[in-house]
Each structure stands twice: as C-alpha cells, then as structure tokens.
Amino acid sequence: MSDSLLNQINSPADLKKLSRAELHRLAGELRQYVVDSVSKTGGHFSSNLGTVELTIALHTVFDTPRDRIVWDVGHQTYPHKILTGRRDRMHTLRQFGGLSGFPRRDESEYDTFGTAHSSTSISAAHGMAMAAKLKGEERRAIAVIGDGAMTAGMAFEALNNAGVAHGGLMGDLLVILNDNDMSISPPVGALNKYLTRLMSGSLYGEVREGAKSVLKNTPLYEFARRFEEHTKGMFVPGTIFEEFGFNYVGPIDGHDLDALIPTLENLKHKRGPQFLHVITKKGQGYKLAEADPVKYHGPTPFDPLQGIQPSTKPAKKSFTQVFGEWLCDQAEADQKLVGITPAMREGSGMVEFHKRFPTRYYDVGIAEQHAATFAAGLACEGLKPVLAIYSTFLQRAYDQLIHDVALQNLDVTFALDRAGLVGADGATHAGNYDIAFTRCIPNMAVLTPADERECRQLLSTAYQHPGPATVRYPRGAGCGADPGKDLSVLPWGTGELRREGQGGVAILAFGTLLYPALQAAEGLDATVANMRFVKPLDGALVERLARSHRLLVTLEDACVMGGAGSAVLEHLNAIGLSVPVLQLGLPDTFIEHGDPALLMAQCGLDAAGIERSIRARLGQPTLRAVNGA
Ligand SMILES: Cc1ncc(C[n+]2csc(CCOP(=O)(O)OP(=O)(O)O)c2C)c(N)n1
Ligand SMILES: CC(=O)[C@@H](O)[C@H](O)COP(=O)(O)O
Ligand SMILES: [Mg+2]
C-alpha cells in the first residue's frame, strides 16, 4: 500500500516526523497489522491490541533506545517490535529461527531487557535508572507493567527500593501501570479492588472528555501540566504509589493519544520516581477479543474474519486436561483437597475445578512464592493442598519449596505442568530444570509419568503420599493412553520393565520419552525400563539392569546436569557398581523457540536420535551410514 503510514516507519525516529492526526491514523494501521499477523502466526493477541497507542506514544515522546523502555512479561511487545524495525519479520514470530515472542537483548537494541516471567520490569528499570545516575548519563528508564504483573511481590520490592534516595541519588524512573483489569484470567486480590476504586466513578470519564476539549485550545505542555494537577488534586489525593515515594499521575485513557502524548511529555521532564496509571482494554479494537480476552490471550492461528472456531478434529486429551479431571475427581473423594494456582487457571486446567469447588479453589495472583508458602500453611492444618504450577514458574518459589515445605516435611502435592521444552514460548518458559532442582531437596519426591494414564495414577500416588511430591508432565498430549477414572495408586518408588532385550543395552526412561525409547529399542534390541520415580529411585531395578547389561542409558526431557541420569550414577556409585552410563537429556544450553518435535529432534531426543546416540556410544555405525543415506 503506497499510502500506508506504517510502511514508512522503520524506527521510532520516523514516528517523530508524524503529525498528531497521522499518529492517530498510524494507530489504526498498527492495530490492523497486529490482527493480520498474529492471526496467521498465533501468539499473544489481546494484550498487544491493548498497547498500540501506548507504544506509539512512548516511542514518539522518548528518545529510544537511549531512554530505556522495559516491558514487563513482554507478551505485549508486538507493536513495539513492529515499530522498531521488525515489521517485516513478524511472520516468523515464535517460530524456529524467527522473532521471539518476548523482548530479547540480542534481537534488538530497543529490547533493553529480556523478559517473559512477570514483574521484573520495575527492578530492572530502577537498575538502569541508577546506573545512569552513577555514570552521569542523562536518560530515562521506563517500566511498563500490567495490573496482573503488579500483583507480584517482586514489583512491590522494587517500588519499595526505588521510591527513596540512595546515597543522595534518585533514579529518573517512570513506572507505567497498564491497567486493563485483566490478568490472563480475571484479576484477583485486594490490589485489583484498589485499582478499580481508583479508576471508577464518573469523574474519570469526565477527565477523558474534558481532556479532549481542553487540548484543542491549550499548548501541549501547559495542557499536560494542568491535566496532571487536575487528576492528582481532584481524584486521587493519596494513592498507595505516592506512599511509596512516587509522583502519581492518572488514571488516563491509554487508548487516547491526545491524553497519552502530552502526559508523557510532561513526565519526561520530571526528575525522580514517577508513576503513570493508564487504563486500557485487553483486545481493544477487535470485538471478539474485547468480549473474551481470555480466549484471545494466546491463540493458535485463526481466521480474523471468523474468529477462533471450535476444532473439528477429535483432539487427544492434553496432560493439562488429565490433571484437571483428576483434580475434580480427587476433590470429590476428599474434602480436604484445596487447589491453588498462581494466576494460571486456564493454562493449568483448573476452570472446571473452580466452577465445581469454588470455596476450595485459590487463584493467588502472580505470586508463586506466596502460593507455595500458603500451601504449606494449609498443610500444617491438615488440609491437602495441590499446587498446580508450570515448571518454569516454580523456579520463583525455590526457597519456599525448601524452607517452608520440604524442611517441615509438609504434605503438598506440586502438579508441574509444562515440564521439558514448551515450543513457541522458548527458553524462558522451558521446564528443563525441575528434576535437578527438586531432587536434591530432602523429603521431596519426584515423579515422572510416561503417559496420560500413568499421569493420573502418579498424581493419586503423590497425593496419598504423606509428604511433599512433584509430578511433572509436559505441554500438550502424550501417546493417547486413556487415563481412566479411578484414583488408584502405584507402588511407591518402583519402576517397571517394559521390554527385555538381548542387545546388552538397557534404557532407563524417566517420563514421556519412554515411547521414543521403546521405538529406538527395536533396532537395538535393547531393554527398556519405565522408571516412574526419580526420587525415591528404584535402586533395586537400577542394580539389576546394571548387573545384566554392558551399557545403561538414562533418558529424560530435562537437563542432563543434575538430572535423573545423575541420580542413577549416584546410586551406582553408592553401591560400588561400575558400569558405563550414557546420559541422554537436554544439553547445557538455552533452547530457542520453535516447534517442540523439531527441537526435541535437534537435541537428539526423538527415537532416531536416541538410537543414533546409543550406536555412537557402542561404536556401531548408524543405519543411515550403513545405508549410505
Ligand atoms: C512469574 C510469572 N508467572 C506467571 C506468568 C504467566 N503470565 C503471563 S502474562 C500473565 C498475565 C499478566 O497480566 P498483566 O500483567 O495484567 O498483562 P495483560 O495480560 O493484562 O496484558 C501471566 C499470569 C508469567 N509470565 N510469569
Ligand atoms: C506470557 C505467558 O507467560 C503466558 O501467556 C504463556 O505464554 C502461556 O503459555 P501456555 O500457552 O503454555 O499456557
Ligand atoms: Mg492486565
């Protein structure tokens, strides 16, 4: 399109040449571009529709990348990517070798801080602002944080630190609260209630209307000054953010460039910690997403004219669904069960549980640390908490896992979803470390189901075990094993032999890689054990296999370092058995985003790769080489 404004924007410098009327037009084009590209690639949708105007305003007013914008989570940065020279690569978003779905320092100089786990922006921007002071550089740091991300303790730790002077210095930090009254699901907690009170009432609406008419006749700078005084003085006399030492401005309409630009111009000239509260709508401009921002939070590709349609193909049940059904059945059977999620109701499969057991359901907000210690408190009183949490987000609660749960041997079941590689979200969301970081904790049991049926059985087993236990399972579906409906348990700490081979090799599989292992075993005539437990490890089975095979191969969809294979080696060492062990798992590197099957194959963790590695270890040619392929 020759008259497209968006096509002329190759960096923020181009924005600065546009008139206000052109910026308005650009916002429409940018929004349409987001709809067109994300509906093709899939990705975070509704949050990005909500940040179109804010992104334009920020890059128009501030001198980026010299002024640092730190986006919290970063799932709302597609407009930012499009305006900072990456428009033509949006079709590669979240695909192997393509643009990341989150900000990355190695992707663009405009991505000042790598994110994807929430609530880090204020800390990072505060660090940047203080660094500017210490280095004598004149620039601003801006943290853009959502109302959901604002619920995390880390955000308040940062406010607490940033709102006071250090060594006589205060950073020129601007925190922008992008308040759309939504997390992934509807927001929870007292902070949300407070923010709702801040923005409620007719006065906010009057400001929006008033702003537009005043602006027509007032020089921009003067307008911004008056606007700020107006909002501060009349509507929000003493906000919590002011108590933290910030100069609070707002709330203002985050879709109104005529309010955003002069307000930011004004704030740009202010020193010290500033706080701007903007109100936006998740899904803004795409009616279906406005009506159902949850459904449109992170969709797979869809037809933008039709919206997301129900799938016509019969889908395999995901591990998440297996967990959700088990949770309801177990809760039906045991009144003591309490289900907890740190802001991941949909992703963790707890929608039905919430509906059926509202008083035993807790969404604690983005607060993984609190979730773990809250579970510990419940367990102290004899209740049976089940904390559903993505493996990657449990990293946030490591001290709580040790100090509050395991040290007191409290009966908490951790349902660890998204274990192993997750695909499009990439390295930030990969659950590669949980085996290594949980198995070293005394009292903690670590269970690795191989398929959907075993997932249900091991959830019951962990739940009945009177102590802390994690059950880890991957994103998506497994081999399709019917999970059944019973709540039976498996014998504690025991694996099973799934194939007895004569090839002298025994594969000890932990988790869903059992199935590619069984395939690989065919060509090698290998023995295959489904180990089920990393801890307690089935030492007797390990010993038996070690005594009867010339090579043991451990296999896990988790980091090799410190993982299940290491547990096997430690056991062999402890009993004084020396046998060659090949440890297969994820390498000591961060794995990029991309199709999970492709990534697993690249790591040598598909059936062909497993067979190849074993043959290489045995000094045998691979079939490929034999066939001359
Ligand atoms: C530590 C952590 N926990 C959970 C998540 C998952 N998560 C990603 S976005 C999001 C909601 C964030 O809400 P908000 O900041 O208000 O942004 P919005 O989606 O409304 O634009 C959650 C819970 C995460 N990224 N990081
Ligand atoms: C940004 C974020 O953390 C979530 O939106 C995440 O992308 C969800 O991942 P799943 O699609 O695996 O639930
Ligand atoms: Mg929000």
UniProtKB/TrEMBL annotation:
InterPro entries: Dxylulose-5-P_synthase, THDP-binding, Transketo_C/PFOR_II, Transketolase-like_Pyr-bd, Transketolase_BS, Transketolase_C, Transketolase_CS
Enzyme class label: transferase
Superkingdom of source: Bacteria
Gene Ontology cellular component list: cytosol
Catalytic activity, EC: 2.2.1.7
Pathway: Metabolic intermediate biosynthesis; 1-deoxy-D-xylulose 5-phosphate biosynthesis; 1-deoxy-D-xylulose 5-phosphate from D-glyceraldehyde 3-phosphate and pyruvate: step 1/1
Cofactor binding notes: Binds 1 thiamine pyrophosphate per subunit.
Positions bound to thiamine diphosphate: 75, 116-118, 148-149, 180, 286, 368
Pfam families xref list: DXP_synthase_N, Transket_pyr, Transketolase_C
NCBIfam families from the UniProt entry: dxs, PRK05444.2-2
Record text on subunit structure and interactions: Homodimer.
Family from the record: Belongs to the transketolase family. DXPS subfamily.
Protein name: 1-deoxy-D-xylulose-5-phosphate synthase
Organism this protein belongs to: Inhella proteolytica
